[in-house]
Known about the structure:
By secondary structure, the chain is α/β, with parallel strands linked by helices. It has a domain at about 20-210 and about 380-480: Rossmann fold. It is built from 14 helices and 16 strands. The radius of gyration is 22 Å and the shape is globular. The N and C termini lie far apart (about 55 Å). This is Carboxypeptidase.
Amino acid sequence: MPNSKISIIPLLFFFFLLANSAPVTQLPGFSGPLPSKHYSGYVEINEKHGRNLFYYFVESERNPVEDPVVLWLNGGPGCSSFDGFVYEHGPFNFEAASTPGGLPTLHRNPYSWSKVSNIIYLDSPAGVGLSYSKNKSDYTTGDVQTALDSHKFLLEWFKLFPQFLPNPFFIAGESYAGVYVPTLATQVVKGLETGVKPILNFKGYLVGNGVADDVFDGNALVPFAHGMGLISDELFQAVEETCKGNYYEPSDNACKDKLDRVDELVDDLNIYNILEPCYHAPEKIRSVNIELPSSFRLLGETKRPLAVRKRMFGRAWPLRAPVRAGIVPSWSKLLDNLEVPCTNDEVATAWLNNEAVRKAIHADTSLVGTWDLCTDKLEFDHDAGSMIPFHRNLTLKGYRALIFSGDHDMCVPFTGSEAWVRSLGYKVNDPWRPWMSNEQVAGYLRGYENNLMFLTIKGSGHTVPEYKPREALDFYQRFLAGESI
């Protein structure tokens, strides 16, 4: 009989984990069995406040026992990582319903990142997507607290899924996750160095079209616009001479006037992909005159939607922020119900607000309310500063880093990302060269010492896996495997 008791205990433990990890057995809109095992639900990271972060976990379709585990974060701050799930590299492609109010149809995505990895989609911080807190004071937060909360989530999540602790673990994200990823990675490394358990097998991180540094990001637009033929040689030369390379903080009215002219010339473009049309812009918001609180620090003065939108820091932020800036560090509920041009969130909104979908993915309906791709609940403070020191510290410790950039994104132009990566001063060990996908040039890359690589994706906009899914899967799987790209 003692042997029978020993065999029952692991079985009970298995069912305990299963109950907490909430298997997803079917998804409305999709016919047939799921391509791999899916789990979703909440991880409580603060019992006193009732602060809960929602995750959706997709096991690898290849070899979940050995394939890497990747945490995916969308930006905002305030945007749901279902952006990545629905529109970018999730296991399904979503087809809009043929009738108003209908449920989208899901088809298997041949370029899903779950083809080669286990992937966790996390709504962070609390208040974003399907995550929530019972204490609304938690919706006043910032970079530092978000990193602490996401680290707490990871520790608790791996307790629910201890079988994945041996797998290589990576953190990935885009846009404002250019802040989320290195700050969270830093917390993970601190935990490893101080013996925090469980011990994560952290190997590195990926950042796509991510904000990093006010000055580098703020100075990126003018050279991008000139290189893309959006402004004339004469205007570029005039801006150079007047502003002396400083476009982030105009030193005088002469410089500001030239920058205003640059903004006028690019004003009608889709800043998330200059090759794409704007999807719905029934009315341009040419000017918004609002007296902002002193804590609301806008980086620049134009009224372009830099950090707000369909695809950079989300898909539908109501506030229009400056293109020259690159980061809007604090948020406020000042401009509700304004339409941001070049956006279309209808498919994700229809699916994630469907009652059957909510039930299938174990998402709360009473406390969360309506799902929005980007929320206006947060008062968010960019309190972590420049990301350059974070990247330097992480790479010098031996962690692998891939900084990738769609080269037609005007929201966080590749010119800024390339410049800050180069500013680290690392020795180049793989000189600038094309990289290939499907026997075609897919972009260009440069490799540096300390496991750092900068890579562009030819013809892609802000959300690379959405615009170039085949190419994105190619560099993603090569990076995870430690292969040459």
